[in-house]
Write a structure and sequence with these properties.
The structure holds two protein chains of two kinds. Chain A is of the alpha+beta class. Chain A contains twelve helices and 22 strands. In chain A, strands 1, 2, 9, 10, 11, 12, 18 and 19 form an eight-stranded mixed sheet that branches. Chain A has an eight-stranded mixed sheet with strand order 6-7-5-14-15-16-13-17, with helices on both faces. The longest helix of chain A has 20 residues. Chain B is α/β, with parallel strands linked by helices. Chain B has nine helices and 29 strands. The chains are: A alpha+beta, B alpha/beta. Chains A and B meet through strand 17, helix 9, helix 12 and strand 22 of A and strand 8, helix 3, helix 4, strand 12 and strand 16 of B.
C-alpha cells in the first residue's frame, strides 16, 4: 500500500468536491481529491434534475442563510464557468404555473421577494401568452410566472469538466479510493483509505450523503443531515420540443415537488416527491413512480408512461426535515481545526461555483497559505461530440481516425472514436462511458451497444471482458465464460 | 462504388432486408445496395443458433445462421451490393439518405426507392418501470442471447426471466443447457407470450417453472442484482401484496415485447400506425411517403421468420417496380380498421385490385370465434391468441366490388355462432 502526502485532501468527487478542487488549482499548493466510486459525480450529482436554480422560487431561501447567498452568488458565475470548461449550458427559462387566485397570490409574493433580493426580473404572463410559449401545457393553468434566467446543465459533465481542469492544473485525483478512517495528529490528519494512507494538513469533507458519517470519524459532526429521496423519470428524445421551458407547479402535496424540464441532451426529465428514506437506498418504488406520473400530467396532460425510457432516485441532504429547506453545511468544523465540511443538500449544482470559492476562503481562515498558481489555465476542452459536427468535419475526423466512422450506439449516435477518447480520459466502466459519451442512454438503454462498448473497454484497458463492470466494485456484467458452468465429464 | 446510380437502397440485412434486396434484383432492378451496421449480413439471425427457421419458406427446419446463409449466397450470386459496418443516420422525405462508416466516412445518396428493413428492438426495464435498485445483471433476452451465442459468455447462473416472449423462452433453454439455473419464467398474462412450440420445447421439456399471472415488483441488489420480488397479479394486472415472494438470483432477463425500430422512418416523415408501431403500408408495402417501402419486423412484429422474409419480398418487388416507374396510379382505396378484439392489421390500406393477404393480431385470447372482414369474409377459429398472427387471404373477386362503394372495411373477431 502506498503512503501519500498532500496539503489539502478533498473527500468526494461530486460537483462540490470538484468545484473546490478546481478553485484550489488556481493556487500553488498540493491538493488531492479522492472518490470512492469508479467515476466522478455518481452520487447526488448524477441523480439530478439538471436545473440551475436561482433561489427565487422558494420561501426557504431566506437572505440570512449562507445557502441562499451561495446560490445567488453563483448566478453570474455559472455560464462563464461552463464556457471555460466547454460543457453545455442552456438558458431555457422557467415557468411556474398558476392555476388559481390563491396560487397567483403566492407567486406575487415570490416575485416581489425576488425583486427585493435583486434577482434577475421575473414576469407574469397570461393564459394566451403561456399557451403560445407552451402549447402542450395544461388547460388548468390561468397564467404563469416566468423567470427567463433559469438554465439547464449536465451536472456530471460539469463535474468531469471541473475535475479534468483541476487535474490539468496540478490537482491529483484518485478514484475507487474509499475512506476507512481518519486519525487526528497534532498538525495533520492521517487518512486511511482502501488504497493506502494519506497524510494531509487540511480536509475538505465534500462526501455528499456521507458528509455526516465522515465528520463523525473525527467526532466533528456538529450538524445533522436527513436523507431525502427524490425521483426522476426520463422521456424519449422523440418528445423533444414538447416543452421549451422548465415548468413546475406549486407542490401538489406537502413536500411533493412537481417539475418537468428539457435537458441539454434533448430528453425531457420530470420528477417529484421528496421523501425521507433510508440513507443509501436509491431504489425506486411503484408508489412514487405513480405519483410522479400523476403530478406531471397536471403540467403536461399528454405524457404517456410509454414514453419513459428510464427512472431513478437519488438523495438530497436536508439540514432540517421539519422546517423544509433550511441552511446548508459549508463551514469550518467548530470542533476540529483544518476540517471544512461541505454539503449543500439542495441545490448543490447551482451553488457549486461560489461554494468552491467559499471553501477556499474557509481554508485560508483555518491557516492554509495560498499563493497564486502562475500557470493556471481556466480552459478545458471537452471531448468531441461527433454527431454535432458538419459533414466536412466528420469526413476530416474519419480520415484522421477511422474509428469515428464506426457508430457504436445507434440511439445517441456515439462512435467508437468517442468511446476510446472517453476511456483515455478515465472511463473504466460501462456507466463511465455512458455518462461521458451518452452511449447506452438512449431508448434501447444499451441493449444494442453494451456488448460492443464492453469489447472496446476490454481492448483499451487490456482486461478480459468478464472483468468489465457496470459501475465498479462487484458490478461485473458477465459472470462466467461459456461452458464454465457445465461439469466436465471424465 | 458510384452511389449516385443506386436504384434501391435497403436498410438492414436481416431476414427482411436480404429477402427484399433479392426480390428487387430478381424483379429487374439494376443496382440494389444493402446497408448493414454489423460486421456481416444477417442481422440478428447469426445469434439465433436454435432451429425452427424456414419450416415454411424452405420446407426445412434450419437454424438462424443456416437460414441466413441461403440468402447471403443468393445476394453474392446476384451481385447485390453491400455496405457493412455502415450506419444509416438520416433519410429525408424526398429519399435523400445519409450513412456513415469507417472507410467512406459520411455517405450521401438518393436512390430511386428505399426499403426500410430495420427490424425491431426489445422493450427495456426502463420502459416497464420496474421499481427497485439499478444493479448490473439485468439484460434484455436478445442482448443475453448475443453474449451467450456470439461472445461466449454466460451472464450468470441463477436466472429469473420476466416475460415469456419467444427470445425469453429460447434463452431459458439455452441457459439451462449452459449449466445455469433458470429459477422461473414470470409472465403477467394468463398465457405464454411466445409460440406454443417454444413453451413446450424450451420450458416444459426442461422443467423450468412458469409463473403465469405473476410479475416482478421490485429489484434488489446494489452492485449486482441479488434478488427480485415477484407477486401474483389481479385481473387488472395489479400485484396482490399478500402474494409477494422473493427469488434470489444473479441475473434477470427481460422478454417483454418488441418494438419496431422506426427512428429513420420518422425522419423520412413516414406515417406510423400506433397499433403496430410500424409504418402504415398498403398491400405493396409502400409507406405514406412515395418510393419508401417497408417489410418485416419494422412494419409489425412477426412470430415467424418465414413471414418476415415473405413480407419483405413484397416490399422488394414493388420498390423495384417503383424504381422502374412501373407502379400503377393509386386509385381510391380501402382502409382496414380493427373492430372487436382486433389489435392490428397489416396492410392498413389496400387497393382491392389484387389478391391480398392480411396479417391480423387479436387483443385477447378467445376460444370459439368467428373472424370477419366486413361482410365479404368469415372464418371460424377454434382459438385466437395475441401471440399468434392470423393470416387471411382475400381474392380480387371478393374485394373489387367494394372499391369506390366504401372506403373502409372493419375486421372483427366475435363469438362464433352469434349470427348463424
Amino acid at each position: 500500500m502506498e503512503r501519500l502526502e498532500t496539503e489539502v485532501l478533498i473527500i468526494g468527487g461530486g460537483v462540490l468536491g470538484a468545484a473546490v478542487a478546481r478553485e484550489l488549482s488556481r493556487y500553488k499548493t498540493d491538493v488531492m481529491l479522492v472518490e470512492k466510486e469508479a467515476d466522478f459525480g455518481w452520487g447526488s450529482t448524477k441523480a439530478n434534475m439538471c436545473i440551475v436554480c436561482q433561489g427565487g422560487d422558494a420561501l426557504e431561501f431566506r437572505p440570512e442563510y449562507l445557502r441562499s447567498k451561495l446560490v445567488w452568488e453563483s448566478i453570474p458565475l455559472m455560464e462563464p464557468l461552463c464556457q471555460e470548461l466547454d460543457v453545455p449550458f442552456e438558458r431555457v427559462g422557467e415557468l411556474a404555473l398558476i392555476r388559481n387566485n390563491e396560487e397567483f397570490a403566492k407567486f406575487q409574493k415570490l416575485k416581489s421577494r425576488a425583486e427585493k433580493i435583486g434577482l434577475p426580473p421575473h414576469e407574469f404572463i397570461d393564459r394566451d401568452t403561456l399557451r403560445r410559449m407552451e402549447p402542450n401545457v395544461t388547460r388548468e393553468a390561468i397564467g404563469a410566472l416566468l423567470d427567463p434566467n433559469i438554465a439547464i446543465v449536465d451536472p456530471v459533465r460539469l463535474t468531469f469538466g471541473l475535475i479534468e481542469n483541476a487535474a490539468q492544473n496540478g490537482v491529483k485525483v484518485r478514484r475507487e479510493t474509499e475512506l476507512l478512517n481518519i486519525f487526528q495528529r497534532t498538525d495533520s490528519f492521517e487518512v486511511e483509505t482502501s488504497q493506502g494512507r494519506i497524510q494531509c494538513r487540511f480536509i475538505v469533507n465534500a462526501s455528499g450523503t456521507s458528509t455526516a458519517r465522515v465528520a463523525r470519524l473525527l467526532k466533528a459532526d456538529d450538524f445533522v443531515l436527513y436523507p431525502i429521496r427524490g425521483f426522476v423519470s426520463i422521456l424519449d428524445k422523440n418528445l423533444r420540443g414538447l416543452i421549451q421551458h422548465e415548468i413546475h407547479t406549486r407542490p401538489e402535496a406537502p413536500g411533493q415537488m412537481n417539475i418537468i424540464t428539457p435537458s441539454v441532451h434533448g430528453n425531457i426529465f420530470f420528477g417529484t416527491t421528496m421523501q425521507l428514506a433510508p440513507q443509501g437506498d436509491t431504489s425506486t418504488t411503484r408508489r412514487v413512480m405513480e405519483i410522479a406520473l400523476k403530478n406531471v400530467r397536471r403540467i403536461i396532460p399528454d405524457i404517456s408512461e410509454k414514453d419513459i425510457i428510464h427512472s431513478f432516485s437519488g438523495f438530497l441532504m436536508f439540514r432540517n426535515w421539519e422546517l423544509g429547506w433550511h441552511e446548508c453545511v459549508v463551514q469550518a468544523s467548530r470542533k476540529v481545526p483544518r476540517l471544512i465540511n461541505v454539503c449543500m443538500g439542495y441545490p448543490g449544482v447551482s451553488a457549486a461555483p461560489s461554494t468552491g470559492k467559499k471553501v477556499v476562503e474557509l481554508l485560508q481562515q483555518e491557516g492554509l497559505r495560498l499563493e497564486k498558481n502562475p500557470t493556471f489555465d481556466p480552459f478545458r476542452k471537452a471531448p468531441l461530440v461527433f454527431s454535432k459536427l458538419s459533414e466536412a468535419q466528420q469526413r476530416e475526423w474519419i480520415e484522421k481516425d477511422p474509428r469515428y466512422g464506426h457508430v457504436v450506439c445507434r440511439c445517441e449516435t456515439v462512435t467508437e472514436g468517442e468511446i476510446v477518447e472517453a476511456i483515455r480520459r478515465g472511463a473504466t466502466t460501462l456507466d463511465g462511458v455512458k455518462f461521458r459519451t451518452r452511449a447506452g442512454m438512449g431508448r434501447c438503454q444499451g441493449g444494442f451497444c453494451s456488448p460492443r462498448v464492453m469489447k472496446i473497454l476490454a481492448g483499451e484497458l487490456n482486461l478480459p471482458e468478464e472483468k468489465i463492470t457496470k459501475k465498479g466494485r462487484d458490478s461485473r456484467l458477465l459472470l462466467y465464460k461459456s461452458k464454465e458452468l457445465i461439469e466436465v465429464q471424465p | 462504388m458510384r452511389l449516385s446510380e443506386i436504384d434501391i437502397a435497403v436498410i438492414g440485412s436481416g431476414p427482411a432486408g436480404m429477402a427484399a434486396a433479392i426480390k428487387a434484383k430478381e424483379e429487374g432492378a439494376e443496382r440494389v445496395l444493402i446497408f448493414e451496421r454489423q460486421e456481416q449480413l444477417g442481422g440478428l439471425l447469426h445469434q439465433c443458433i436454435h432451429n425452427g427457421f424456414g419450416l415454411f419458406y424452405f420446407g426445412q427446419d434450419l437454424t438462424g445462421p443456416e437460414y441466413g446463409r441461403r440468402f447471403v449466397e443468393k445476394i453474392k450470386d446476384l451481385g447485390i451490393e453491400v455496405l457493412l459496418e455502415t450506419m444509416v443516420t438520416h433519410i429525408s422525405p424526398d429519399r435523400e439518405l445519409m450513412a456513415i462508416n469507417k472507410r467512406e466516412g459520411p455517405i450521401g445518396l438518393k436512390p430511386k426507392s428505399i426499403v426500410l428493413a430495420m427490424g425491431c428492438r426489445e422493450r427495456t426495464r426502463g420502459q416497464l418501470r420496474i421499481p427497485g435498485t439499478r444493479p448490473a445483471g439485468i439484460f434484455t433476452a436478445g442482448t443475453a442471447q448475443r453474449f451467450v451465442n456470439v461472445e461466449g459468455f454466460i451472464p450468470g447462473k441463477r436466472v429469473v426471466i420476466l416475460g415469456s416472449g419467444d427470445i425469453g423462452l429460447i434463452m431459458a433453454r439455452r441457459l439451462t443447457l449452459e449449466g445455469a439455473e433458470v429459477k422461473a419464467v414470470v409472465e403477467i398474462l394468463p398465457y405464454v407470450g411466445g409460440l406454443i412450440r417454444n413453451e413446450v420445447q424450451c420450458l416444459h421439456d426442461f422443467h423450468i417453472p412458469l409463473l403465469l399471472e405473476h410479475t416482478v415488483t421490485q429489484i434488489h441488489g446494489e452492485e449486482r442484482i441479488e434478488a427480485v420480488t415477484i407477486a401474483k397479479v389481479d385481473q387488472d394486472k395489479n400485484p396482490i401484496p399478500s402474494t409477494e415472494q422473493i427469488i434470489e438470483c444473479d441475473t434477470m432477463l427481460l422478454s417483454v415485447g418488441l418494438i419496431p425500430e422506426n427512428e429513420l422512418s420518422k425522419m423520412a416523415g413516414v406515417e406510423l400506425d400506433p397499433l403496430t408501431g410500424g409504418p402504415v403500408v398498403d398491400e405493396q408495402r409502400e409507406t405514406s411517403v412515395a418510393g419508401i417501402f417497408a417489410g418485416g419486423n419494422v412494419v409489425h412484429v412477426h412470430d415467424l421468420v418465414d413471414h418476415v422474409s415473405w413480407e419483405a419480398e413484397i416490399a422488394g418487388t414493388w420498390a423495384a417496380r417503383y424504381a422502374k416507374r412501373e407502379t400503377f396510379e393509386k386509385k381510391p382505396r380501402l382502409t382496414l380498421r380493427p373492430g372487436r378484439n382486433i389489435r392490428s392489421i397489416v396492410p392498413q390500406i389496400i387497393s382491392g385490385q389484387d389478391d391480398t393477404s392480411l396479417y391480423i393480431r387479436v387483443k385477447e385470447l378467445k376460444e370459439g370465434v368467428q373472424l370477419k372482414v366486413g361482410e365479404i369474409y368469415s372464418q371460424k377459429l377454434r382459438i385466437v391468441k395475441p401471440s399468434e398472427m392470423i393470416k387471411v387471404t382475400l381474392s380480387k373477386n371478393q374485394l373489387e366490388p367494394l372499391v369506390g362503394k366504401t372506403n373502409e372495411l372493419i375486421i372483427r373477431c366475435e363469438k362464433a355462432g352469434k349470427h348463424e
